[in-house]
Design goal:
The structure holds two protein chains of two kinds.
Chain A (H helix, E strand, L loop, with lengths): L4 H10 L7 E4 L2 H11 L4 E5 L12 E4 L2 H11 L3 E2 L9 E2 L3 E5 L3 E12 L4 E7 L6 H7 L4 E6 L7 H10 L4 H20 L2 E12 L4 E3 L3 E4 L1 H5 L4 H4 L9 H8 L3 E4 L4 E5 L2 H13 L6 E4 L6 H12 L6 E8 L4 H15 L5 E7 L2 H10 L4 E4 L2 H14 L10
Parallel strand pairs in A: 14-16, 16-17, 17-18
Antiparallel strand pairs in A: 1-6, 2-3, 2-6, 4-5, 7-8, 7-10, 8-9, 10-11, 10-12, 13-15
Helix pairs in contact in A: 2-3, 5-6, 11-12, 12-13
Chain B lengths: L9 E5 L4 H13 L2 E6 L7 E2 L2 E4 L2 H8 L3 E4 L6 H10 L4 E4 L6 H11 L5 E3 L5 E4 L3 E4 L8 E8 L3 H12 L4 E6 L10 H10 L5 E7 L4 H12 L4 E6 L23 H10 L3 E2 L6 H10 L1
Parallel strand pairs in B: 1-2, 1-5, 2-4, 5-6, 6-7, 10-11, 10-12, 12-13, 13-14
Antiparallel strand pairs in B: 3-4, 8-9, 8-11
């Protein structure tokens, strides 16, 4: 689960990590008031959306008068911001952050994450702040420095100094950097975070360290087990894909993709493999969908509705390897879903495992136009062929 | 022979009295696994599924001589259950539970460091040595005792590989589901090491997926140490970056952990890869009989 910048900064401040003074507002009049209350000669207005790349996309601007702040906030609020990290529709802007302008001496990068290889919390720092850190990692890896935290000992001051000197900071900054890093480490543990990025962490004209931006990702599992109630309240569903939210409410794991073959599979690995096999056969998956292990007929029906809510879907491939899930139960779910919602696109069904014969018989006896398949390769070939035939007329001539 | 578990393994069930725990324990018993008891705090002295229940794992181990345990307790309590089992001297701990917070697993792994414990999972189907010992939620009937070792991060996709090796007449020595979480117990490398040393295993199928670098580490291990043929499949070529594909660990982040990168590392190490999971059975058959 992702947080907004203003929420992340709120958490930072509570741990003593310095942030610029600012206000989050939801109307242009409030934006102007915020600028006036902050005082000074320049203000930064930042669109609050769950996506990086806001600067290049016109979602962040420095303004030099409160009227300008008001006008710019007005152009952002209620609109959608498209960045290189969003889809073509972009993310809705419902709030903007108005901050005091600060003089920037240097821009650094500081990140905290769970490193899977070392199975430790790791700090990453670079003197190349303010730019895409993935590019730096790929092109100039020597500019990225890491500190690996032992879970029992915790983050040590020497690790902060090591990173600090590697970043080219002087002795005068070591105390401040250590406080920033220790604050972020406490936050990471207390709030069950899986990622923190401060990009940039700046050295101001007066020589202070300041978290100019803040990105925080919370471990969904920790939210799910119920120990991060306050964080859960920060969730902004408007920033999440509508269909994915609806699927999650039904305990379905669903992710929208840009192809036209809907997929319904039990198990995450098999669901990915099914998408891959569709592609190998020349098709394109419209979604990832794992109906889960303990699924029932009702959930299968809901899965059909969710897949079909996308107008792009021209066919559906159902791939079930029944272990705990019984194929006859899945077949009943398919039959009732197809009857209830009137599926008009071709459906190919591959069933394997527990009670497979009963499942196949239920489908065959239903009289529905469901195409049975022998195995996954056969299923993929059949759905790709079926979708190819059902291509709407004139689609070729579209510009 | 086989790896980690066999017909002599004495299995304890932590969380045996819950709905999931009861169902899968019944299945394991029916499969012929030596399930020697269950642990549910507060219900010590009772019986469940014709097996004794204990309040603590330590007590259960003392009474039954259990050397393996399977965990079906909810995510919030599973780390505690893993550590309790390890502390009681259990050697193989299979944690089926999905959804354990990653920082909890980080601390569990640290606590287990240096102990003679094999943690399988979490978020996994478990481990099975066919016709001897089934610990976990996999459907027993698709397995046959045989000569292929299978190690996988996935559940149902593993069953796909199992069925193909069964249909090909090869069967399996042991199948290990190492789980879909970012921090897990035994790794691909740990399992490959055991399969390499196991005289009953002629070849290995490994099923990976996007995220992390466990497959790359496995590739380096195969190149340096494996004499037996290995067939690998990686799921998620079509998965978009930055999206978690069902499993907590299945995510491409910062350009790392792509299926293409894993295929490339494995191929460079001399591992036979298949681009479709439907080719696993034929490929391993050709390699072990060739």
């Amino acid at each position: 689960m992702n947080l907004h910048e203003f929420q992340a900064k709120h958490l930072f401040a509570a741990q003593g990590v310095p942030i610029p003074r600012g206000y989050v507002v939801r109307s242009s009049a409030e934006a102007r008031e915020a600028a006036e209350r902050l005082g000074g000669e320049a203000w930064v207005v930042k669109a609050q959306v769950h996506a990086g790349g806001r600067g290049h996309a016109g979602g962040v601007r420095v303004l030099e008068d409160p009227e300008g702040v008001e006008r710019y906030a007005d152009t952002l609020l209620g609109e959608r911001l498209v960045t290189h990290q969003t889809d073509g529709r972009g993310q809705p802007v419902r709030a903007v952050l108005v901050e005091e302008g600060v003089a920037i001496e240097r821009e650094l990068y500081l990140g905290v994450l769970v490193d899977r290889a070392s199975q430790r919390v790791v700090f990453m720092a670079s003197d190349a702040g303010g730019v895409d850190i993935e590019e730096i990692a790929a092109e100039e890896p020597e500019r990225i420095h890491t500190a690996c935290v032992h879970p029992a000992a915790g983050l040590q001051p020497y690790q902060c100094r090591q990173l600090g000197f590697a970043l080219g900071l002087g002795k005068a900054h070591m105390g401040a950097l250590t406080r920033v890093m220790q604050g972020l480490y406490r936050l990471f543990l207390e709030r069950d975070l899986s990622l923190v990025e401060v990009n940039p962490l700046i050295v101001t004209g007066e020589g202070r360290l300041l978290a100019l931006d803040a990105k925080v990702t919370v471990d969904d599992n920790a939210v799910e087990v119920g120990r991060q109630a306050e964080i859960q309240d920060m969730r902004d569903l408007s920033q999440e894909e509508e269909t994915e939210v609806r699927a999650a409410e039904h305990h379905l794991n669903y992710i929208t993709l840009d192809g036209n073959i809907g997929c319904m599979v039990n198990g995450a690995g098999l669901a990915m493999a099914t998408m891959d096999v569709i592609k190998l056969h020349g098709g394109a998956p419209a979604n990832f969908l794992d109906v889960g292990g303990g699924t029932d007929a009702e959930r299968v029906a809901e899965a059909f509705k969710i897949i079909l809510s996308s107008p792009a879907v021209a066919g559906i491939l159902v791939n079930i390897f029944g272990g705990i899930v019984r194929c006859d139960m899945i077949a009943e779910g398919i039959v009732s879903a197809v009857r209830e919602i009137g599926v008009e696109v071709p459906v190919v069904v591959r069933l394997e495992g527990t009670n497979v014969e009963q499942g196949k018989r239920i489908l065959a006896d239903s009289g529905l136009d469901v195409i049975p398949a022998d195995d996954l390769a056969d299923a993929a070939a059949r759905i790709v062929a079926a979708v190819g035939q059902s291509e709407p007329e004139g689609s070729e001539s579209r510009p | 022979m086989s790896i980690l578990v066999d017909e002599h393994t004495r299995v304890l069930v932590q969380g045996a009295t819950g709905r999931q725990g009861s169902f899968h324990t019944e299945q394991s018993i029916a499969y012929g696994t030596q399930v020697v008891g269950g642990v549910t705090p507060g219900r010590g002295g009772e019986r469940h599924l014709d097996r004794p229940l204990f309040d603590t794992v330590r007590e259960a181990v003392a009474e039954t001589g259990a050397d393996a345990s399977v965990i079906y307790v909810p995510a919030a309590y599973a780390p505690d259950a893993i550590l309790e089992a390890a502390d009681a001297g259990i050697r193989v701990i299979a944690c089926i539970t999905e959804g354990i917070p990653v920082l909890d697993m980080l601390h569990v792994k640290e606590a287990l460091r240096g102990q003679a414990v094999y943690l399988i999972g979490p978020n996994c189907p478990g481990i099975i040595t066919p016709e001897a010992c089934k610990i976990g939620i996999m459907p027993g009937h698709i397995h046959r005792r045989g000569r292929i070792g299978i190690v996988s991060r996935s559940g149902t996709l593993t069953y796909e590989a199992v069925k193909q090796t069964t249909d090909a007449g090869l069967g399996q020595s042991t199948c290990v589901g190492i789980g879909g979480d970012p921090i897990q117990g035994v790794s691909f490398v740990d399992c490959l090491e055991h399969f390499e040393a196991d005289p009953e295993t002629d070849g290995v199928v490994m099923v990976g997926e996007i995220g992390g670098n466990a497959e790359e580490e496995a590739a380096a291990y195969v190149r340096a140490h494996m004499s037996k043929p290995v067939v690998a499949y990686i799921a998620g070529v079509t998965a978009p970056a930055g999206k978690r594909m069902g499993h907590a660990g299945a995510i491409i982040s910062g350009g790392q952990g792509t299926a293409e990168g894993k295929f490339a590392a494995l191929e460079e190490a001399g591992v036979a890869t298949v681009r479709s999971p439907t080719e696993i059975g034929a490929r391993i058959q050709a390699l072990v009989s060739g």
